[in-house]
Amino acid sequence: MTDTTILQNNTHVIKPKKSVALSGVPAGNTALCTVGKSGNDLHYRGYDILDLAEHCEFEEVAHLLIHGKLPTRDELNAYKSKLKALRGLPANVRTVLEALPAASHPMDVMRTGVSALGCTLPEKEGHTVSGARDIADKLLASLSSILLLLVSLQPQRRTYSAGNRR
Fold first, then answer.
1. φ, ψ for residue 13 (rounded to 5)?
2. Mind listing the pLDDT tens digit of every residue in the chain (166 residues)?
3. How far apart are CA 127 and CA 134, in angstroms?
4. Where exactly are the structural domains of the chain?
5. Cα–Cα distance between 139 and 114 in angstroms, integer?
6. Which alpha helices (H) appear in the chain, and where do they start and end?
7. Among 28, 55, 70, 125, which one has the highest count of C-beta atoms within 10 angstroms of its own C-beta?
8. Is 163 helix (H, G, I), strand (E, B) or coil?
9. Element (DSSP H or E) covering residue 32
């Protein structure tokens, strides 16, 4: 056992030690977010995450992260329409998901759905920024459909509990 073990034999908790070895060392440069710029804060593309959570819709934040800016009202309406049009799952992806064992963990179903989607709709050669954004939009739209399919199959599936995860 190491000091990073969170739970040992379901009897007691061992808290991980806080590593200070890399405190203050940049892990990389990104335009997406900053962490701890002025304490324990988080910013997405310059916007405080608490402000985004309080004042923005999900699709507005998705647009900000994927497309680089908060949308105008017209852009938001167009983006919602685009995502709605991208929600459909190909038949073979549905078939793969429907064939999974009833006791499958929901995250395993989501991961498998994404993998099946990637095999069905492979990325095109020669990545472009626009193409990457289209992939992100399709994935974002498809995840809700994968989740909806999972929920619709629940009557036929065994109820999941944390205890039956392998």
1. -100, 135
2. 444 444 445 555 555 555 555 566 666 666 676 676 666 678 888 888 899 999 999 999 999 999 999 999 999 999 999 999 999 999 999 999 999 988 889 999 999 999 999 999 888 877 888 999 999 999 999 999 999 998 888 765 555 555 555 4
3. 11
4. 7-85, 91-164
5. 8
6. 49-55, 58-67, 73-85, 91-98, 106-120, 129-153
7. 70
8. helix
9. none
